[in-house]
Write a structure and sequence with these properties.
It is a single chain. This protein is an alpha/beta fold. The protein has one domain: 3-Layer(aba) Sandwich (Rossmann fold), CATH 3.40.50. It has six helices and eleven strands. The strands form two sheets. A nine-stranded mixed sheet has the order 2-1-3-4-11-10-9-6-7, sandwiched between helices. Helix 2 links the parallel strand 3 and strand 4.
């Protein structure tokens, strides 16, 4: 069986390691079937997409909608590489699932509008599936509404042409969409449990997501949420395409 590819854009070693652990845990993949490439360490890494059953893209400290003049040289290089990879992935309708930064990356690439209109603080939000999700192979059979972790400064305001809306929330209308048959993106984090999110809170305490002095209170709040249903999306992605 082919492995899957995890594209990581996290520059903090601890956060990157935690992200890999989370994707392994909730995809159910053994380590030998999940290759990770940290694009922040090598934007020009040699990647042979044909080796993989599908591509996963995790979250990031980057924001797709930031003005070009505000982006670091590293962010510009990473995003250029992502566009290059998406040229192939989207044209081939290759199985793809992007989480958080992934929804902005795919959204911008495919012609959607991503900005800060629907930013959400770190929290658990109630996500509701659309009618189209009931017949989608990745979503069919999931609860019609479930809790999931979010925390983002930007979001999709207008879907890309041809995209199918699969999930929404009161504070962020686009929580999940599909392009073509096999290209998916979620605004929420299907890979996070309470422990992993607590680590992220600690790592990004001073990055403007929340007042730093509220970190411990925030950890307690998110720990009370039941986000197990959101994890099923990762398991199904692997089952569907693996």
């Amino acid at each position: 069986m082919k492995p899957f590819l995890l594209l990581s854009t996290r520059d903090h070693d601890g956060a990157a390691a935690g992200e890999l652990d989370s994707f392994l845990a909730f995809t159910g993949l053994p380590p030998e079937r999940l290759d990770r490439v940290r694009l922040v360490l090598d934007p020009d890494a040699d990647i042979e997409l044909g080796r993989y059953a599908g591509v996963l893209l995790g979250g990031s400290p980057f924001n797709s909608s930031d003005p070009l003049e505000d982006k670091s040289a590293l962010q510009v290089a990473v995003e250029a590489r992502l566009r290059q990879l998406l040229d192939t992935v989207v044209a081939a309708d290759m199985p793809f699932l992007g989480a958080c930064y992934g929804v902005g990356t795919l959204g911008v690439f495919a012609g959607g509008v991503v900005d800060r209109t629907y930013a959400e603080p770190i929290s658990a939000v109630r996500v509701s599936l659309t009618d189209d999700a009931t017949t989608d192979p990745l979503c069919a059979g999931l609860p019609t509404a479930f809790d999931a972790y979010v925390g983002h400064k930007e979001a999709v305001r207008e879907l890309p042409p041809g995209a199918v809306l699969l999930a929404s929330s009161p504070t962020c209308p686009v929580q999940m969409f599909r392009l073509k048959q096999n290209l998916y993106a979620t605004q929420f984090h299907p890979e996070l449990d309470a422990a992993a999110l607590a680590q992220r809170i600690e790592v990004y305490k001073y990055e403007g997501y929340f007042p730093p002095e509220t970190a411990e209170e925030l950890k307690a709040e998110v720990a009370a949420a039941d986000v197990e249903a959101s994890h099923a999306i990762l398991r199904r992605f692997v089952e569907l395409y693996g």
